[in-house]
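I hope you will forgive my troubling you with a question about protein structure. I am sending you one protein, given as its amino acid sequence and as whole-number tokens for its backbone shapes. Thank you for your consideration; the sequence and its tokens are set out here:
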Amino acid sequence: MEFNCRVDLWQYSGDKSSWYFVSLPHEISADIKQLSEHEHRRGFGSVKVEVKIGSSTWQTSVFPDSKKGVYILPVKKQAKQAEGLLVNTPLDLHIRLI
């Protein structure tokens, strides 16, 4: 299953690290949750995905955020730099469950 969406990049504020994420829309998160109930799901409810932002592609996992009720996706530092991504700026995301 594949999804496309426009989301904002945000930085984790829990420490001084450089962790960056996007929150997937509620509709896509609900679809991922339903599709992953019997397959794809890994530890802590994570789901393995392939991500494409601009010309950057990588594999990672999305993780459930119980406070927001959506999945969050960590954005690799290399992709952030290569694509010139800025915090609170919309970006186009393509995501595929693997």
Observations:
- Residues 2-97 form a domain with the Elongation Factor Tu (Ef-tu); domain 3 fold (CATH 2.40.30.100).
- The helical segments are 26-35, 77-83.
- The chain is about 15% helix and 45% strand.
- The longest strand covers residues 2-11.
